Amino acid sequence: MNDDPSDPPIEPVPPPPPPPPVETVAQQVERAEAAATRRRWITLAEVVGIAGLLIAALSLWMSWSDRRADQQEKQAEKASETKVKTLVLLTATPEKDGKRLALKDSAHEVQSIDVRFPASLGLAAQSSVLDPRIESTWFADPILKMVEKGPDKRQGRLPVLITSNYWDADQQRSDSAIYDVVWFTEGSFLGVSGRSLRLKGILLRERTASPARLEAIWAAEKPKAGG
User: Does residue 176 lie within any of the structural domains?
Assistant: First the structure.
């Protein structure tokens, strides 16, 4: 043993650190449950966040859809109003003892009309300029021939396709529709042989420009001989 006082003192060796605590099974289960609970809360928060985004997106889409529907409805109403303003509704006043119908439209200054008859009558189309009118002489002969074996007094309707032409400000427009020309026949005055055909007025039948439809109407409603 060296008791030399000049030797440095010997420092004690520190004890080793204690071993880490060993978790019991219960502690492990508790820690796992706590972690699972934290994960559930995180997942729930994510679900709530996504649901909120979906709700916000749905609300935005519904708002946009409603605005679009309103705009489309307003555009449709405006287009409908514009279309109504361009439509012609002709009315007739008998002239010359029913030999002529003077036509007019209260909403438009109609400058000319084109009148088309059912093709089976074999009649040429007629036009009237400045003073729109329909003359009984345009179609009297075939009608009188069809009813020549019946009574003197007959009444019927002749469908015609009328195209009305007019100006709307600086734009030229036209409107076509099928009208019924209401006619009647009567015996000649003072017993003179033969009959005459007179005109009463016109009625709007259909808003169409189809010659085929005109022919179909006439085929169903033309007068029968002796009827």
Answer: yes
Find the domain containing 41 and state its range: 19-82
- Please say whether the beta carbons of 133 and 102 come within 8 A: yes
Domain-ending residue, one of 66, 82, 98: 82
Strands 171-187 and 154-168: antiparallel
Q: How confident is the model over 136-146, as pLDDT tens digits? A: 999 999 999 98
* Dist CA 175 CA 83 (whole Å): 10
- Helix spans in the chain (H): 25-86, 140-146, 211-221
- What does the block give as tokens for 201? 């007025």
Mean pLDDT, residues 58-75 taken together: 78
Residues 94 and 27 in one domain: no
Tell me: do 64 and 91 sit in the same domain. Answer: no
Verify that 72 and 32 share a domain, yes or no.
yes
Cβ count near 139 (within 10 Å):
22
Question: 180: which residues sit within 8 A by CB, 6+ positions away?
Answer: 157, 158, 159, 160, 202, 203, 205
What confidence tier does 112 reach under pLDDT thresholds 50, 70, 90?
very high
The pTM of this model reads 0.63
